[in-house]
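Quick question: what would this complex look like in 3D?
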Amino acid sequence: MTPATRTFRENARTALGDAKLAKALGGLPTGLVAQRAAAKARVPEFETLRTAARDIRDHTLSNLDVYLSAFADKAEAAGARIHWAADAAEARTVIAHIALKNGARLVAKGKSMISEEIALNAYLESLGLEVFESDLGEYLVQIRNETPSHIIVPAIHLSRDDVEADFRRHHAHLVPDRDLSTPEALVAEARAVLRERFLAADIGITGANFLVAETGSAILVTNEGNGDLSAHLPKTHIVLASIDKIVPTLADAATLLRVLARSATGQDMTAYTSLLTGPRLQADPDGPAECHIVILDNGRSEMLRSGLGEALRCIRCGACLNHCPVYNAIGGHAYGWVYAGPIGAVLTPAFLGVDQASDLPSASSFCGKCEEVCPVRIPLTSLMRTWRERSRATSGSALQRMALAAWSFAARRPRLYHAATRLGIAMLSALGRSRGAFRRLPFARGWTASRDFPAPQGRTFQQLWAERERGVPR
Amino acid sequence: MQPRVGLFVTCLVDLMRPSVGFAAARLIEDAGCTVTVPTGQTCCGQPAYNAGDRKTARELALQTIRAFGDCDFVVAPSSSCAAMLRLHYPALFKGQGETELEAKAFAERVHELTDFLANVRRKTETSARFVGRVVHHDACAGLRELGIKNAPRRLLSSVAGLELVEAPETTACCGFGGLFSVKYPEVSTAIADRRIEDLTSTAPDLVTAGDLGCLIHLAGRLHRTGNPLPCRHVAEVLAGELAAPPIAGRAGDTAP
């Protein structure tokens, strides 16, 4: 997808004016947020689990070479083919090559954010392949020609009415006056339409939540079973995963699974947790004849090298989005690329270059809720601050940068600072005290466009305190 | 001998609302301490730090640390500034030997005002009086960086006539976020509106908070939307310093 990160401000403004979006996002506090809180409350050791999960991720990321090669050995021993891809273009080429070699025409896709990251669908379609998303939310955004607006709830921005209208438009071959008034009816229709496509698909492409070094397995969690159908029905299965998905052992994966679903949807476990190990063996009743695993770097090694490695702990639960006041206000599309919310604000500059996405880490009130809920304790605000340091010269307006520079200059010279502020505050107060607040202030439109600016009381505390010390009555 | 407390007054209180500084000083004195206000202090450096200017932040940190060299405690009527002094100063000098040790030794003496009163001085009784329903907004830095939640509530509960009410959402951000509020004013204001809806659902007579940043933002939005609900720093209520008009209130307008 073409990034729209540079127009973040306009995107955000448009989103704030969208009443339908506000209504859709308005369900978050009583939905995913409340469900996570309830799930956490059922597990007294949840905070300990978060620490254990963090430690597993840190240990793995510090020994990534060891575990990646161990995984590759085990997976190959189980009959899978491993493909290493340094960047998005390599991953796309490898996947296209496998598809074309197998004479594939129809591709079933399980939900995969990595495939969004490398813009896989558009590429395969440009080669004449037909690709269908099999996760319901992904299917919805696909038939609308949109992109996911949330890591785990791709169609969170849509209403039931939107879905009904889209189905009537897109499933034009079905009886026009069918009843689609309930969510159940919509799900049943999606299921029927998708089932036929599954049976016709030549290739299945899924992501992986974890790659287990101990066994060479890919672990896939879903609530719809679509991942399993994508993996098992077509003759060829391609797993697309990034290098940071590695976990050392099945026991480690179990620990991460305990925090993943609880943080994401508030479920103790997702409905399906599948371990996919190599292609179908002779004794297996079903499964793919070929299994390929594409392991993608795409800038992640560089993140590890350049002090952003903590972001790679992420297990894509989406909790930071759900709890973020900014995400709750503007939704995911405003962020302008694949990953939204606090984790998106940290990842996107790494993928696109900070000059393309400096607004994302800047547009945070640093309230810290994301860190409080992150199942692997990613220091999201510190990482956003790191990006602010790397984009300082270009962030904010020229006027804002000048004002901050002037402030910094004076603040480092206390005598100048106290004299200058005393004068400035006296003037400002004289202008505004009778009204209590300013409706408008020169150079402060950023504030006064939507808020009044309270008038200062008139004299500085330092000034008054010095007088008190000298015995002058207040 | 009474402990010597350096009041880190914060730039916002110094410039916008000195009455909060006097209220804080009174409360610290009433808790059996002497108060000193070093003139070498200006700003804690957080705006520069969060704008990605580590160099200026370090310089302001050293300036602040040295200005308070002779104090037993450093107390700030702001959790956001206190968190900067207490948590981020040591982080700024990580791996810098003596300076890091100096920053750590300084950080251990730093407290947010209500935390200092209730947990260091164990003083949870006040002689103040305020008749009405008060809803307290927790600043994010206090809540999530310093773990302050009970201290202001215990203190407010001791004010005669004061009925403390809780908003349904007790941990929500007000959308201020320092420079965030002017860099992304629309988003910041949208978050404020949501917070205001939540706070006002308790039908309060007054909103308090321990941070002037949140308060200027909330009061500014309330005032713009024609909502007369007054906002005050918690120190003003605790010290009974209610002579000044509430934030964004007109001169002579002292109620409540």
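Answer marked as accepted. The first strand of chain A starts at residue 81 and ends at 85.
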